Amino acid sequence: MTADTVANPELAKAFVGRDVVSMRDFRREEILFVLDLAERFEHTSEPLLGGRVVVNLFFEPSTRTRLSFEAAMVRLGGQNIGFADAGISSVAKGESLADTIRVVENYCDIIVIRHKFEGAARLAAEASRLPVINGGDGSNQHPTQTLLDLFTIRKLHGRLEKLRVAFLGDLKYSRTVHSLIEVLAQFECEFVLVSPQELRMPRDILDDLARDGVRCREEFKPSILPVDVDILYTTRIQKERFVDPVEYERVRNAYRLDREALEVFPRPVTVMHPLPRVNEISTDLDDYEGAAYFQQARNGITVRKTLLSLLLGALP
Amino acid sequence: MTAERLLAEERSIKVSALERGTVIDHLRHGTGLRVLAVLGLSDADQTVSIGLNLDSRRMGRKDLIKIEGKELTREEIDKIAILSPEATLSIIRDFQVVSKLGPELENELEGVVRCRNPSCISNHERIPSRFLVADREPILRLRCAYCERVVPQGEIDLL
After folding, report:
1. CATH number of A3-141+300-311
2. Is A24 near chain B, with CB under 8 Å?
3. Is A119 within 8 Å of B150 when comparing Cβ atoms?
C-alpha cells in the first residue's frame, strides 16, 4: 500500500459521485491514486457496498465485462440489476437513451453502461445525477479495461514509466489499445505498432503522439515480432467491427503467437490480451512465464471493486 | 471609425453605408460564398452585399460580406471562426461601428459542427452536437465531445 485515503483524502473525496467515461478525464496523479488504492482492494471482500445497487445497462453483448462488474459488486456486498440485451429493453420500443437513464437512475446508486455507439456513456453521464461508469462505447473508450491493464503492467514491471510496449493486431478499431497508448504515452513509454496496413493506428492518434514527441514506430509485417520490447499487447481482430467481410477474411489470421514465435525474445516478454482470444494466442502460451492475460481478467475485478467503492464513497 | 470611413476603404466595392447590421471583413479569399451559404443568407430577408477577391493590404485578396439589420448569433460567429479565423466582425448601429472583433472561437461548440462518425451517439439521438477545441495551432482541430474523434480544419462539417 503506497497511498491511501488517509494520505489523499482530498483526492478520494473528489472521486465521490464522479463519472468514469474516458481516460481523457483523468490526470496522471488521479490514475496513480486509483492504482494505489486498487492494491488495497486486491484481497478485500468487506461488505462495503451493502444495500447499494448498481444497474448494468448492457446495450451491446458482453459476457466478461458484465460478469466482472457484477462479481465486483457482489464481492463487496452490493446488488446488481440490469439487462444484457438491448432487444429486451424499452430502447427496442424507441425510447431515447437519456430517458432510459433518467428512469433507471431511480432504481439504483450507480450506473454501468456498455453501448455500441461511441459517446453513449458520455450522454448517459450528462443525463444522470448518479455516477456513470463506461463499460465500453463502440470503438471509443473502455476505461476500466485501461485501468486494469495499467494495474497489471505496474504489478509485473513495478512501474509504468519508460517501458517499451508493442501493440499487435487490430490497432484501428481496438478501443483498448487507443486509450492504453494515450495513457502510457504520459508515462514516457516507447511504442512499436505492429498491424496489417488495413488495421493501422488511426491518423489522429499518431498525430497526437508525434506532437507530444512520443517515440513510436509502425511495422506492417505482423509475422515479424519486435524483440526490443518489454510488453507485447495483443488484440483480437474484431469481426463485428468490419463492414466488409472480404476485408475481415484478408486480415483475420494476420498473426499468431505461440512458444516458438516467442523464442526470438532474449528473456520472457509480458504477453497481454484483453480477451476473448480467438486464435491469435496459442494455448501453449498459457503457462509461459510472461503470459499475463488471465491475470488481467483477475485484476479487472480488483479495479472495478475499487472504482465502485470510490465513486460511492465507501472505502475501507 | 465611422461606417462610411470603413466602407470608403473598400475601394472596389460600391455599397451604401449601413445604418444597422454587420460587416464581416477580411474573410479568407474564397470563403465568402461558403460563409453566405452557412449563414443561410442567400435566401434571407436582409439585404446582403458581398465582395469577392477584393484587394487587401493585409491579405492580398479577401472576401467581404455586409448584412443589413442583422447581428450574428454565437453559433454563426463560431462558424465564421472555423471557416476563416482571420475575419473581423464589425457591428454597426446608427452608422457607427460599435464593436469590432475577431471571431474568437469558443472552447466548446454546441450545435455548430456535425460529427462525421456514423457510430457517434450524436448521430443517433436527438441531441445537439458538441465539440471541443483540441488544437488551435498549427491548424484548428476539433474533438467530438461524445465519440472523441478528432476532425482537422479542412474536414469540419458545419451544420
Report:
1. 3.40.50.1370
2. yes
3. no
Q: By C-alpha distance, which of B6, B66, B56, B67 is closest to B29?
A: B56
In the CATH scheme, what architecture does the domain A143-297 have?
A: 3-Layer(aba) Sandwich (3.40)
**B71 CB burial (10 A radius; 0-12, 13-18, 19+):** middle
Inter-chain CB proximity B145 and A122 less than 8 Å: yes
- Report yes or no: A122 and A102 within 8 Å, Cβ to Cβ: no
Q: Which residues of A touch B110 (CB under 8 A)?
A: none
Identify all chain B residues contacting A136, using CB atoms and an 8 Å cutoff: none
**How does residue A251 score in pLDDT terms, banded at 50, 70 and 90?**
confident
Angstroms from B120 CA to nearest CA on chain A = 5
Please report where in the chains the cell 498459457 appears, as a residue: A286
Q: Where in chain A are all domains bearing CATH 3.40.50.1370?
A: 3-141+300-311, 143-297
Q: Check A98 against B124: CB less than 8 A apart.
A: no
Which residue in B135, B148, B149 has the most chain A C-beta atoms within 10 A of its own C-beta, making it the best mutation to test that interface? B148
Q: Residues of B116-128 as b/e, b for ≥16 C-beta within 10 angstroms?
A: ebebbbbbbbebe
Answering whether pTM is above 0.90, one says no
The predicted structure's pLDDT at residue B80: 92
Pairing of strands A79-83, A53-58: parallel
DSSP string, B2-60: BHHHHHHT-TT---PPPSEEEEEEEEETT-HHHHHHHTT-TT-SS-EEEEEEEEETTTE
Q: Which three cell numbers stand for residue B99?
A: 464593436
Closest residue by Cα to residue A290 from A269, A310, A273, A311: A269
Distance CA A43, CA A34 (A): 15
Which distant-in-sequence residues (6+ apart) come within 8 Å of A72 by Cβ? A301, A304, A305, A308
Q: Which ipTM value was assigned to this complex?
A: 0.90
**Residue B92: burial class (beta carbons within 10 Å; 0-12, 13-18, 19+):** buried
Residues of A in contact with B145 (CB under 8 A): 119, 122
A221 Cα to chain B: minimum distance (Å): 27
- Contact between residue A236 and residue A169 where contact means Cβ atoms under 8 Å apart: yes
Distance (Å, rounded) from C-alpha B91 to C-alpha B87? Answer: 13
Q: Does B117 touch chain A (CB under 8 A)?
A: yes
Pairwise CB contact (< 8 Å): A120 & B150:
no
The nearest CA of chain B is from the CA of A254 a distance in Å of: 26
Beta-carbon contacts below 8 Å between A and B = 53
pLDDT of B95 strictly over 90: no
